[in-house]
Amino acid sequence: MADVNAIVPGVVTELNPQVRRLTAPNPGVMTGAGTNTYIVGERILAVIDPGPAIDVHVQRLVDAVGDRLRWILCTHTHLDHSPAARALQHATGAQVLGMQAADDGRQDTTFAPDRVLRDNDTVDLGLCVLRAVHTPGHVSNHLCYLLEQQQLLFTGDHIMQGSTVVITPPGGDMSDYLASLEKLLRIGIAELAPGHGHVIAHPHEEIRRLIAHRLKREQKVLDAFAKKNPATLDELLPLAYDDVPEKIHHVARRSLHAHLLKLLRDSRVTESAGYWARA
Questions:
Q1: Phi, psi of 214 (to 5 degrees)
Q2: What are the domain boundaries of the chain?
Q3: Cβ burial 123-143 (10 Å sphere, 16+ → b, else e)
Q4: What's the pTM value of the predicted model, to 2 decimals?
């Protein structure tokens, strides 16, 4: 087993006796070192987020689970999290679990769960139990999974280590995202196991930090109207994200749109013919 402090794609890392991590070889701006696939259980296994359909990653998973895999759980159906479910199911016969989303052009259209999970549904692994926690926001069908005995929450893309989650309308919704973060504050959690990056300690502290960060960004969006009102989304972008490198403004633009839609719903801005104005 590899060093728990290192994230090396293709290497199985034991986080504790019931959880192993295998990171897919898909590093990038949006994925960091790659998408984390988690193998959970001892005698009976579940895989959380099988990842992208990369042959070498699927084969490494098959080798790691042997004949003990019973369930393949997906946190959501973005292309770096769920496409490998189909190949892994074909190789192992395991059932696919998760929640489907409306196709917004960014979803894995091959995803076909044998069981659709809802908030608070459980998966019994014998020595441990996984509980689904519906956390819409990053996308409408996002689920986190709580390993109850350890209070370890697998967060998919709801919370990522070292990076801010992108909220992309129409599938993503900033109001839902903030509400889902607040929901996690009411759950007993000891650590967070994200879809990208390292395990995060002090989870409630991290969740409060994320909420504060989003609300601070929302205020920057509102303050931008002092310089240009009304303004298009592209005119607001360099004003509201002047602290973000320009090379990733194309990504920040999506979250800016999500912030504006939330503010529109809150009656704090108006929109007409592509121009936004502070109400």
A1: -65, -40
A2: 12-201, 213-278
A3: bebeebebbbbbbbbbbbbbb
A4: 0.95
- For residue 272, give the amino acid letter: S
What does the pLDDT look like over 165-224, one tens digit per residue? 999 999 999 999 999 999 999 999 999 999 999 999 999 999 999 999 999 999 999 999
Would you say residue 1 has pLDDT above 60?
no
Q: In the numeric block, which tokens belong to residue 159?
A: 């919370």
Candidate CATH numbers 1.10.10.10, 2.40.10.120, 3.90.230.10, 3.40.47.10; the one for domain 213-278: 1.10.10.10
- On whether the CB atoms of residues 40 and 123 are closer than 8 A, the answer is no
**DSSP code, position 108:** -
Partner residues linked to 145 by β-bridges: 132, 154
Find tokens 């005995």 and name the residue: 149
How many CA within 13 A on the CB side of residue 88? 40
CA atoms of 164 and 210, how far apart (whole Å): 8
Contact 11, 22 (CB under 8 A): yes
How many residues are present in the chain? 279
| pLDDT score recorded for residue 269 | 98
- Residues forming a β-bridge with 146: 131, 153
Q: Report yes or no: 193 and 157 within 8 Å, Cβ to Cβ.
A: no
- Tokens encoding 212: 């504060």
Q: What is the pLDDT of residues 29-54, one digit of tens each?
A: 889 899 999 999 999 999 999 999 99
State which fold the 12-201 domain adopts.
Answer: Metallo-beta-lactamase; Chain A (3.60.15)
The order of strands in the sheet holding 143-147 is 122-124, 129-134, 143-147, 152-156, 191-194, 200-201
pLDDT, tens digit, 9 for 90 and up, residues 64-82: 999 999 999 999 999 999 9
Contacts of 202 (CB under 8 A, 6+ apart): none
